[in-house]
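Dear support,

We are seeing what looks like truncated structure output for some complexes. This example has two components. We would appreciate it if you could run it in full and send us the complete token output so we can diff it against ours.
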Amino acid sequence: MSTLHTVNKSPFEKTSLEACLGHVSAGAAILLIEDGVYAALTQTSIEAQLKGALDSVKVYALGPDLQARGLSEERLIPGISVVDYAGFVDLAAEHDKLQAWL
Amino acid sequence: MSETIKNFLYLNRKAPYGTIYAWESLEVVLIGAAFDQDVSLAFVDDGVFQLTKGQDTAAVGMKNFSPTYAALGDYEVKKIFVEKESLEERGLSLDDLQHLTWEDEDDDWAEKDSIHLVTRAEMAAIMDGADVVFSF
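Here is the complete output from our reference environment:
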């Protein structure tokens, strides 16, 4: 069983990402969407937290949400993959289920 | 005019697009600008994300309201305070934000910076000094 987790809240305002990271199993995937994409930035106060997860889970960020917020891909933590809406659908289809962290 | 001028502070603490707060704040600021009050804007916590340059909302199908910040100077909104600690916690610097200016009619319309980088302690003093605080 492999799960796709989505996080749509800013990690600087809500504990959604922290809660997600505390509950993901190895082999799962996390997709950062909406304000969740701020977690993908380098040199932030939560960077270490997210980097720690990259060893055991795959982390993705939704491109359109990055673009809307003026965040270019070169500012992202290495190892995070950017996907578009079609990629979101592919990820949802590849995993057994989707769990949203609101 | 014997009308009392009050110091209004608009406090912005939310990122744009994820919620409606940022856009609502901007609308209220523009409406309030018509009333000749002493207006200041504060960007704290995730509010600093509102001012990032290069926002492109085409793919998410939402209105990109970020160009509106550049018009604030024309509405006599020229005191924009951005908290240094909030930027640093988010891996940002002033270079990542839009360059906002206003034209000083008392100085041959010289273009001057609207954004002032302040520390958290300075921001606290700005909040204390306001007559009215509108929170978003």
